[in-house]
Structure formats: C-alpha cells, structure tokens
Amino acid sequence: MSHPLRISVAKRTPAAAAQLAELGRRLFYEAYTAQNTPENLAAYTEATFGPELQLAELQDPDVVFLEARMQQELVGYAKLRLHSGLGRAADKVPEERLEIERLYVAEDWIGTGLGAALMRRAIEEARQQQCRAVVLGVWEHNARAREFYQRFGFRPIGQHLFQLGTEAQTDLILRKGL
Description:
Layout: E1 5-9, H1 14-32, H2 38-48, H3 51-59, E2 63-70, E3 73-82, E4 97-105, H4 114-128, E5 133-139, H5 143-151, E6 155-164, E7 167-177
Parallel strand pairs: 4-5
Antiparallel strand pairs: 1-2, 2-3, 3-4, 5-7, 6-7
Helix pairs in contact: 1-2, 1-3
C-alpha cells in the first residue's frame, strides 16, 4: 500500500505549469491578503503566476519544482533554484547554493507535516546537487514561516527588498549550511 502523500519533480508540461500557476496564485493571495492591498497583491500575482511564466520556469534547467500531492490533489510545492547568488557577499568565495524561492502549502495542510516533508526533500535535492548551502528569503513579518525555517537550522545572513506591486518590503535572507 502506498502512502497518500507523494512528493515528486513536476513534469515540464503546460498542464503542470497551469496547475502550479493556479495554486501559487491562490496560496500567495490567501497567505498575504490580510497584510497587503488588493492592488499590490493583484499586480504581484499577475506578474508572477501566469501559466506561460510557470512553463518557462519549469523548462529552465536551473529550476526544479517539487510537487506535493495528497491522493492526486496538488496541495503544495517548492520552487528550487540551483546556482543561487542570494545572500552571497561580494567579497566571499562563491559556494554552490540552492535557493528555495517558494515553499507553499495549502492552508488546510499546514501543521500536518507536509511543509516539513517538502523542506526535507528540498535539502535532499541540494545535497544531490553537491551544494554547500541552502538559502531563502522570507518576509520579515511572516513569523510562522520564520519559525518553521529556524527549526530546520536556517539562520539570518542579511536582507533584501521584495517588490510587491508598488510596495517595497523587506525579506530576511536565511542560510543553512550542508
């Protein structure tokens, strides 16, 4: 008997891109609607979660999408980028990094271990790619996500601006060495 949760690499197809775009748009909106204007959310989600853009990202050899499916339903995903420069100081020797650009879980599945399973799989992917670190950006006001990443050993190394429509927000850059 198979486990009902399945995490796998997304297929590089228009159908997969459409599913990822729809889920990404919905989950981003749900997560941030209370703290942001509808105009800024609409501008960001339109610019970020179009099916054509998702297909282009799926076809980028430096990008890996991990899909989390519970009994065939797409309930979360992680977007990973190889060779990331996020948080790399200009004066340091470059290290191979994997960036977690997105780690999204449907609200109904938060607290079930689905996010942790996606994170473990992302870290496994970093090790398989012989990366020396995993990095990510998280909104400074997203306490739940910051706490989640801290449990996995991520530590702050800097910050950068995240443009949400017309508003520049501060993301903390977190790093976990491997």
